[in-house]
Amino acid sequence: MRDGEQTPGVALTREKKLLIARALDDMGISVIEAGSAITSAGERESIKAVANEGLNAEICSYCRIVKRDIDYALECDVDSIHLVVPVSDLHIRTKIKKDRDAVRQIAIGVTEYAKDHGLVVELSGEDASRADLGFLKALYEDGMDAGAERLCFCDTVGLLVPERTTEIFQDFSSSLKAPLSIHCHNDFGLATANTVAALAAGAKQAHVTVNGLGERAGNASMEEVVMSLEWLYKYNTGIKHEMIYRTSRLVSRLTGVSVSPNKALVGGNAFTHEAGIHVHGLIADKSTYEPMNPEYIGRQRQIVLGKHAGRSSITLALKEMGLEADEVQTEEIFNRVKQLGDQGKHITDADLQTIAEIVLDIYREPLIKLEEFTIVSGNKVTPTASIKLKVNNNIIVEAGIGNGPVDAVINSIRKAVSSCAEDIILEEYHVDSITGGTDALVEVRVKLSKNGKMITASGARTDIIMASVEAVMNGMNRLINI
Ligand code: MN
Questions:
Q1: Distance between CA atoms of 264 and 270, rounded to whole angstroms?
Q2: I need a surface site. Which of 63, 128, 196, 288 has the fewest CB within 10 A?
Q3: CATH 3.30.160.270 is right for the domain spanning 364-480
Q4: Is it true that domain 4-255 has CATH number 3.20.20.70?
Q5: What is the β-pairing status of strands 384-391 and 368-376?
Q6: Is 473 helix (H, G, I), strand (E, B) or coil?
Q7: 176 Cα: distance to centroid of ligand 1 (angstroms)
Q8: Residue 117 confidence class, pLDDT cut points 50, 70, 90
Q9: Cα radius of gyration rounded to whole Å, the chain
């Protein structure tokens, strides 16, 4: 929550930091760098709240080699500090404007000061990958003498390659007594590879961020490092891997930084299959085109149906929904899906489910039904919506406000259904116009999730608000049923 928060445009409030810290702690993360105490009074309040939350994890603050930073960290009740010492000549010259020996002296003094005040110290070499390794090792040794419990090697601008990482960590881990950490940045896309190489060569701890957030190209990503160790190296990290996806979604939502669709493990497409040969293979054996079970990290595979959808993709998608169709039924479902596809419509999970239920004659009355809604919007009013829904045969009336009319109406639906669907989250919202002109047919596609289950649903109308309501209600009805 310190380096990850250094992602451009990200600022976490106290409440958001608490939510993320609790999730990380639940997963079994052993150290949480909650922030940098020197930053501001608000940041200190957040770090202090995390430190006093009673979590199992060690709570840490980032500190420079400045006594004031230590004092501020102490105010926050943290267990430990990540004490960052510039070690490359470039950093020493430009940031500290002194020489190597002066930096070493200051680092020793500040380490002793932190130890005198009862803090656990992880002494970190900043820009270590561009530093003189002899100087770095000497600094580490002085730091240990001054009481530092752990040492960290920071590849601050992401210049390491796995071979060099292996060499450095084999040397350092055999010659230094304190446990070593690795801190990698992803400027060349090698953060995960370098982190894993360091661990394999003797590092005892790795600095990672959820979704690989961080400055520039980000840090080594938690999910990639954990899953590489678990799945590829068969190493039991002790992390509750089934919480990985949920945590990734939580962090994405709270930071407002979306995860790219092709991001390893947690990207939207990481376990999504489109029509064709792949789906055919999947039916025979899931492992044909999947590296691992998506359930291992708490997610599900998705089958996307487009106009190229074949019978096999439909069969598999139905199977994923727990529906079984015979040959004749499959043929009928297939024809109806094709018809929709030819109209240029995206076939969502909700569409397929609806079609399948009709064809298989297991049509269920939707749990949530729209009775009426009203919207007030304009240039001098806060967009406000009131809605009347029938939920489980009870009439519920609610109102909501929003940034715009669509937001207002969706907020009012959310409030109205909170009794039966409070944990449903609107993850994505897309609008496409199917035909041209102001009277065009508009298709709204939404992605909703509930406890890690993700589904897509759509609505198509000439009225964008009606299409949005329809999409969200379709999705909610489907999520409630699974
Ligand atoms: Mn960093």
A1: 6
A2: 288
A3: yes
A4: yes
A5: antiparallel
A6: helix
A7: 23
A8: very high
A9: 27
120 Cα–ligand 1 center, Å: 20
Q: Determine how β-strand 180-184 pairs with β-strand 205-207.
A: parallel
User: How many angstroms separate the alpha carbon of residue 73 from the centre of ligand 1?
Assistant: 19
Count of C-beta atoms within a 10 Å radius of residue 404: 11
Strand order from edge to edge, sheet including 442-450: 424-433, 442-450, 453-461
pLDDT digits (tens, 9 = 90+) for 305-319: 766 777 888 888 888
* Cα gap 10→214, rounded to integer Å: 9
| CA 9 to centroid of ligand 1, rounded, Å | 16
| pLDDT for res 276 | 60
- pLDDT average, residue stretch 332-352: 81
The secondary structure of the chain in percent helix, strand, coil, rounded to multiples of 5, reads 45, 20, 35
Q: For residues 427 and 433, what is the distance between their CA atoms, to the nearest angstrom?
A: 20
Q: Which residues have CB atoms below 5 A from the ion given as ligand 1?
A: 3
Contact between residue 16 and residue 253 where contact means Cβ atoms under 8 Å apart = no
DSSP assignment string, 419-440:
HHHTTEEEEEEEEEESSSSTT-
Domain ranges of the chain: 4-255, 272-361, 364-480
Greatest alpha-carbon span in the chain: 81
3-state SS class at 101: helix
We find that the CATH architecture of domain 272-361 is Orthogonal Bundle (1.10)
User: Whole-prediction pTM value?
Assistant: 0.78
Phi and psi torsions of 376, nearest 5°:
-115, 125
Task: Please identify which residue in the block is written with the tokens 């190209």.
Answer: 217
In this prediction, residues 65-83 reach a mean pLDDT of 98
β-bridge pairing 80-86 and 424-433: unpaired
d(CA 184, ligand 1 centre) in Å:
7
How do residues 381-407 score in pLDDT, each as one tens digit? 999 999 999 887 889 899 999 999 999
Measure the CA–CA gap between 50 and 55, rounded to whole angstroms.
8
